[in-house]
């Protein structure tokens, strides 16, 4: 673990920003530019497809027989099913405060989970606020899960995963699926999840100034767009405070000590434990929000992703299938 690496990451995240709230367009452009600097594993195969009612980026491990070195990554329309044998599918929800981000901005995370597990992943391009506030993202996540099940995927072969707002979505989509009578996925992995729209966690204050990325004000700005006047005191908006997690699959919650959202994870872990859920709370010292995206730059990021991959491969036990993107 390198103090120099952590300092480098913190300095990058503390770059001066414009004063006052930014426009939606500026936030989206800035986040896209920042995430374009993250390292994505080589040798992945990517295809745009449709899952449920939304576009989705399908990501597979590369290096199948017949792949030419240096030509493993493919994008564009899907021209037929690949014949890769795999044993699991990750439904990955990107971060971005419900307002910005896309499957492409999350590729450092989705790609690393795919590369480290050998599973394939779908990353839905769910609708964003303010154009589409709560509960649009949850509806899209649930639609994506239904599509996988309707396509013949065994729920024991599916894991939900996500970062930040997408980490929260991995939990709230699980709540929505359970309440709709759908079978639970095999596991949930959440990186620095946003799980409390009430913003009542102690870390909101104790980590103020320590967090190089978020402030209460910045979270309030994007949060208001997503809420659009909805009461934050409800399970689908604040599961860390209000959700009944009975019947949930095993969960891995990863966070860093240098983030104001830290207590979103610690409180959800407590609720999971009280509900008899298998939960691992994995806290890394002196790292920021979604530090896992700095894989290849920060040792702690690679180590955390290794732990997440181990968690998934131990819990996702679906039958091997010849599969390609859902149609």
What is the gist of this entry?
This protein has 327 residues and is an alpha/beta fold. It contains ten helices and ten strands.
Distinctive features:
single chain; 327 residues; alpha/beta; Rossmann fold; eight-stranded mixed sheet; two-stranded antiparallel sheet; 10 helices; 16% strand
How are the secondary structure elements laid out?
Elements: H1 3-13, H2 24-35, E1 44-51, E2 54-61, E3 85-86, E4 89-93, H3 107-117, E5 120-124, H4 136-150, E6 158-163, H5 165-179, E7 187-191, H6 203-206, H7 216-227, H8 239-242, E8 251-256, H9 262-274, E9 279-284, H10 299-315, E10 321-322
Parallel strand pairs: 4-5, 4-6, 6-7, 7-8, 8-9
Antiparallel strand pairs: 1-2, 2-5, 3-10
What structural category characterises the helix and strand content? alpha/beta
Low-confidence stretches are 65-85
Into which percentage range does the β-strand content fall?
Answer: 15-25%
Please tally the helical runs, counting DSSP H or I stretches of 4 or more residues: 10
Number of domains: 1
Task: Describe the main β-sheet briefly.
Answer: 8 strands, mixed
Tell me the overall shape. Answer: globular
Strand order of the largest sheet: 1-2-5-4-6-7-8-9
Radius of gyration: 18 Å
Terminal residue distance: 43 Å
Portion of residues in helices? Answer: 25-40%
Mean pLDDT, rounded to whole units?
89
- CATH T-level fold name: Rossmann fold
- Which H/E pattern describes the elements? HHEEEEHEHEHEHHHEHEHE
Number of distinct beta strands: 10
Q: What's the name of the CATH homologous superfamily?
A: Alpha/Beta hydrolase fold, catalytic domain
Q: What is the name of the CATH class?
A: Alpha Beta
